Amino acid sequence: MKLAPEGAPQMIVCTAVLGAAIWGASVWFWPAVIPLALVWGWSIAFFRDPNREAVFDADTLCSPADGRVTDITPVEFDAIGGPALRVGIFLSLFNVHINRSPCRGTVRSTHYRPGKFLPAMKPEAADQNESNTLVIDTESPIPGPIGVRQITGMAARRIVCHAREGTPLSTGERFGLIKFGSRTELIVPHVEGTEVLVEIGDKVRAGITPVVRQPIHAHEKPAPDDVAPPVAGDVISM
Fold first, then answer.
1. 129 - beta bridge partners?
2. Catalytic residue among 101, 131, 170, 182
3. What is the pLDDT of residues 175-232, one digit of tens each?
4. Which domains occur in the chain, in start order?
5. Closest CA relative to residue 127, chosen from 73, 205, 201, 188
6. 182 catalytically annotated
7. Is residue 150 helix, strand or coil?
8. Are 150 and 176 in contact (CB under 8 A)?
9. Which residues touch 177 (CB under 8 Å, ≥6 apart)?
10. What is the pTM of this model?
11. With contact defined as beta carbons under 8 Å apart, do 122 and 73 qualify?
């Protein structure tokens, strides 16, 4: 199983602490070994980073995160400069927490905002919690720009984002993660013909599940967009 290197400090600490606890339990109270081992296994599995490959039509945006769709809401998004649509995705402690680009494009900007740590499943977390927002200038024929917002939750206290201004991204390309339960949002221009392909309550997978289809001009010739290898970058520490 491939693991996200960004989780190395947490995995080392969990292994040391739980390893000592498991050793002690094996000596003094062996039935406690099983739950402690399960907790250790979960702490390692949380940072799993599965390979994802999919092909999408040029008018389709994929999910930026694994999780469950909690809200589909009309919003105002300054970078878009007009009506926008937000698809909110809640990531539980058992979901893969890798974030991926929903389309091909170039990062226009990233913006970190300090804030609270409300439960990530609540829509108001979008406005009040600590977050990091990417604005991506999409490649034609998808209307743009779009936004992807990484939001902390009650347990999530660290956002990792490798993308910087000018970073090119391909559909499904890995750009960061949120450590422990969190929320990710996809924000797209709400134009005539915008079609949301998921419903509230649906489970989605980053880089795999199509989420939004946008209208394209008749003269455009859509071509499938395939996955590019990940890019390296730095960590935004929160």
1. 116
2. 182
3. 999 877 688 999 999 999 999 999 999 999 999 999 999 998 533 444 455 444 444 4
4. 5-45 (no CATH), 60-213 (2.70.70)
5. 73
6. yes
7. strand
8. yes
9. 4, 6, 7, 97, 98, 99, 160
10. 0.80
11. no
